[in-house]
Specification:
Blueprint: E1 16-21, H1 35-58, E2 63-66, H2 78-89, E3 95-97, H3 110-113, E4 120-122, E5 129-134, E6 137-141, E7 164-170, E8 172-173, E9 189-190, H4 192-197, E10 202-206, E11 212-213, E12 217-219, E13 236-241, E14 247-252, E15 259-269, H5 272-283, E16 289-298, E17 318-328, H6 332-336, H7 341-351, H8 357-371
Parallel strand pairs: 1-2, 2-3, 3-4, 6-7, 7-10, 8-9, 10-12, 15-16, 16-17
Antiparallel strand pairs: 1-13, 5-6, 11-12, 13-14
Protein name: DNA repair exonuclease SbcCD nuclease subunit
GO molecular function: exonuclease activity
Pfam families: Metallophos
Length: 381
């Protein structure tokens, strides 16, 4: 392997090993975490990249590929720039970078400011540009040059040469958007059929954080958890590319962090201590960070506040509690018979013919909790 990034020919056949990752998002804000935890999570992302480079060396990859969103453009620091330069210099193999919508290429981008070592090749055009990896093997790469509104790279593209043609870019397969995490926008959209029509044997793609193995394209998924609710199977993918254009995929977990999503369903709870006991039991065997969602039914007397639960698991890096749908078990018939302000309030609301049933219940619960001095953070159901 040469420093220019051209791979050594292997007996005139294409049979190379490529390690792909994407969507690391260095310097992510982690708004759901406090300052100390957010900093620890950002350091974990750096450690994840070190695991990726170590794996590339251990597997004797011929090249390391990043399909975008390596870092956050709005938050990167000079320290991050130096870290990335050293990390990619250390792999002693060609590194190919295709900027995405979060790490888009421009005059102020980290990519433009770093004096990269000769083994790093950065795609900078918002169209496919060819890079010969080996005899008969071409890697086409493209870059986002703005944070939004990047047109598709594939639709009007056709390869202009024989051999095996691969593509590296950050984009959205339009048919899969509905299966991805919420909030994903169609940056640089493409369809699976366009990959084949363009003459691309396989595309290495970033943007979707949920891993996906399609016939002619692969999303590795984000290699370390960025938020809660992320399913397993994400990481990096080691490819063996054969001389007929087919690929073999081998997924590797390189994550540093553990992030869990736990639901605690309450039933017949009469005081907040019972809630605490159930939360402690639910996270007892976990490590890392856990988000606990409280749902179910509680008695009217229960004063339930998420902040009271955050310190219940000192063995975790953090416990992030939140309230889901929690029903307050009022006996409206009994309350309506009371000769009290509460009773009169319930009678008045129940006699209102304008309110639908759901709204009537919300008004009753909200008002009763206010009258009881318990206007807490409970979701009114």
């Amino acid at each position: 392997m040469s420093g220019s990034g051209v791979l050594a020919a292997r007996d005139h056949e294409v049979n190379v090993r490529l390690l792909l990752f994407s969507d690391l998002h260095l310097d992510t804000h982690f708004r759901w975490a406090g300052p100390a935890l957010a900093r620890a999570r950002r350091l974990a992302l750096r450690e994840t990249l070190q695991r990726i480079t170590a794996l590339a060396r251990a597997e004797q990859s011929d090249a390391l590929l990043c399909a975008g969103d390596l870092y956050e453009h709005e938050r990167f620091s000079p320290d991050t720039a130096h870290f990335l330069r050293d990390a990619f210099e250390s792999v002693d193999m060609p590194v190919f970078l295709a900027p995405g919508n979060h790490d888009w290429y421009g005059p102020q981008s980290l990519y433009h400011q770093v004096e990269w070592t000769p083994n790093v090749h950065l795609f900078t055009e918002d169209r496919f540009v060819a890079h010969e990896l080996a005899d008969g093997l071409t890697l086409w790469g493209a870059a986002h040059r703005a944070p939004a509104n990047t047109d598709g790279f594939v639709e009007h593209f056709r390869v202009d040469r024989g051999g095996v043609n691969l593509a590296l870019f950050h984009g959205s397969e339009t048919a899969a958007i509905g299966f991805q995490e919420s909030g994903k926008l169609p940056h640089a959209p493409f369809t699976a059929s366009e990959i084949e029509a363009a003459g691309i044997d396989h595309a290495f793609v970033g943007h979707f954080h949920t891993a996906r193995d399609a016939e002619r394209h692969t999303y590795p998924g984000n290699p370390d958890p960025l938020t809660f609710g992320e399913s397993a199977g994400r990481g990096v993918v080691l490819f063996t590319v054969h001389d007929d254009g087919t690929v073999e995929r081998e997924r590797h977990d390189v994550s540093v962090s553990e992030v869990h999503d736990v639901t605690v369903r309450l039933e017949g709870v009469t005081h907040s201590g019972q809630v605490r006991e159930q939360v402690i039991a639910a996270v007892a065997g976990l490590t890392g960070v856990a988000r606990v969602t409280i749902t179910g039914e509680v008695a009217p007397e229960v004063d339930l506040r998420p902040a009271d639960l955050a310190a219940l698991a000192p063995h975790l890096d953090a416990l992030v509690p939140r309230l889901g749908p929690v029903h307050v078990a009022y006996d409206f018939d009994a309350l309506a018979g009371e000769p009290t302000v509460r009773g009169q309030f319930v009678r008045n609301v129940r006699e209102d013919t304008v309110l639908d049933e759901e709204t009537r219940r919300r008004v009753l619960v909200t008002g009763l909790r206010a009258l009881d001095g318990r206007a807490s953070e409970l979701a009114v159901r």
